[in-house]
Amino acid sequence: MTAPDNVTFRIRRYDPASQQPPAWEDVTIPYTHGMTVLDGLRVIKETRSATLAWRSSCRMGVCGSCGMFINGHPRLACNTQITELGTSLVTVAPLPNFDIIRDLVPDLRPMFDAHAALMPHIIRTDVEEMHEPTGEYFQTPHELEQFLQFTYCIKCGCCMAACPTVATDPAYSGPMPLAQSHRYNADSRDGGFGARKKVLATEKGPWKCHYAGECSQACPKGVDPARAIQLMKRQLVFDYLKLYKQPCPSKVTQKPTEVRRRPDVPEAPAATI
Amino acid sequence: MRDQRLWTWHVMAGLVILVFLGLHMTIMHLDAIVGIFNPADPHPIAWANVVARARMGFFTVSYIVLLGAALFHGLYGLRNILFELGPGRGVKSVLNVALTVGGVGLFVFGAWAAWAAGVLARTL
Amino acid sequence: MLDNMGHPNRLGVWGWLGGGKWGLERYLYTLHRLTGLGLLLYFLLHIFVTSARAFGSEAWAASMGRVSGGVFVLGEFMVFAAFAFHAANGVRLVLVELGWAIGRPIEPVYPYRTSVHEQRPLALGIMVVAGLLVLAGGLDFFILH
User: Which of A94, A213, B5, C115 would bridge C102 by S-S if both were Cys, CB 3.0 to 4.6 A apart?
Assistant: First the structure.
């Protein structure tokens, strides 16, 4: 799209103190080259509407703060060029499927609560080794590939806004918590499948996902939560049918001791800490 | 534990239905193109054909299997849709009981009808 | 203080329909639900209608007589079409939801090729299969009878 001269932002405003329901507000500002939706919101706050509220931080697509519903799709405001929308009318609303705290600020706590309930951390029995490591946990590049994609999640909530099940069901965990639970189930260093399975076998599990695929299409980081959830379902179904044997978590490996330095490789400098 | 079990059975029931309902649809609605298991009459639902099929133990058994699988698959699907509308815990319990009782009741009735039709067909 | 402030913002059942801006799989999901409900409703009535065969030929003829005629033929064809779609899409869902047709986890490099793209050829193939079945059914229902 050729760059417009002016851009009209149609923003969903809501002030909890005013007792009024959310309503649209139109603001037209001049377009500047390379303007993102976040840039536009800043201009509006600085020059037109000082009470406009939203979350943002890094402005470069890595913190996950600025998830919003832009022209009918959940996107990161900092990552969305005005020109890529193909229109000079930019409709900005808070992420759906979350309660609105104010203006464009969603209440993400239910997502984080669901996330915490699915134990998104390494669970192992060798607690002393985890606290006082003597070596590293062995992991091949192939084993890393099984979960690396899902580690790129920035917890922005765009997938939750896109999911049709989250749209109606408050009890469903949602794509982000489930994908992150699978990230740890698929990690060869983790031994927590048995513990997570107890939660995943209930209604908090992936059973209300019907592969609409919107979470993966909305994800700004290519995490593909839909893929993670289907792989998780496969693991759980095979486990129920007693066809899945959980591999042992990675063992600790020590540095090799019986090696000699090659003559052309210099010694490492002395440790300073 | 329950949802993991129920969903797995839902998928397996779906595969069973694919085979048996596929056969049923072919017999009933692709008769002019494929034409199987309608030995007595061109019309699949003619009484003579119904009797001929009811005499075969394979059909009695497969109708009962299809009935069970389809009732489970369909009522679990309905349960999914209703539960996703976010009802309260009490409503969920009532729905669970109602769907289970309704499903079992329909299965008992339908299985009896299939068996009774087989018995009747063998006397004709 | 925060607990009292949230304004409800779930999309509700409108979120099942998608509003015209979403991918193919969203529509397949919605249609799968609609055909499933339609098939279930037909099936529950079908159990009673066909149980008449346990009571002899007169009962069977009476029961079949009640469900014959123009509207019922069209209705039955729609049930057949719903089955064709629901079964074909169901096969796709079994392959996808058990992790076979969605590809392996990859290092995400922009532009992202997600599992949705990986299974898109399967989705299109399934729709072709469903379409062919519906055509075959239509031929049998309306032309050859």
Answer: C115
Which residues in chain A touch residue C103, judged by CB atoms under 8 angstroms apart? 227
Q: How many domains does chain B divide into? A: 1
What is the distance in angstroms between the Cα of B58 and the nearest Cα belonging to chain C? 17
Which three-class secondary structure string do you get for chain A? CCCCCEEEEEEEECCHHHCCCCEEEEEEEECCCCCEHHHHHHHHHHHCCCCCCCCCCCCCCCCCCCEEEECCEEEEHHHCECHHHCCCEEEEEECCCCCEEECCEECCHHHHHHHHHCCCCCCCCCHHHHHCCCCEECCCHHHHHHHHHHHHCCCCCHHHHHCHHHHHCCCCCCHHHHHHHHHHHCCCCCCCHHHHHHHHCCCCCHHHCCCCCHHHHHCCCCCCHHHHHHHHHHHHHHHHCCCCCCCCCCCEECCCCCCCCCCCCCCCCCCCC
What's the complex ipTM?
Answer: 0.93
Give the pLDDT confidence of C13-65 residue by residue, as tens digits.
877 776 446 788 988 999 999 999 999 999 999 999 999 999 999 999 999 99
A109-250 CATH choice from 1.10.3720.10, 2.40.30.10, 1.10.1060.10, 3.40.50.970:
1.10.1060.10
CB contact under 8 A, B110 and C51: yes
Distance from CA of B1 to the nearest CA of C (A): 18
Interface of B with A (CB under 8 A): 1-8, 11, 80, 83-86
The pLDDT averaged over each successive group of 10 residues in chain B (124 residues) is 92 96 93 84 88 92 96 96 94 96 97 95 89
The dotted CATH code for A6-106 is: 3.10.20.30
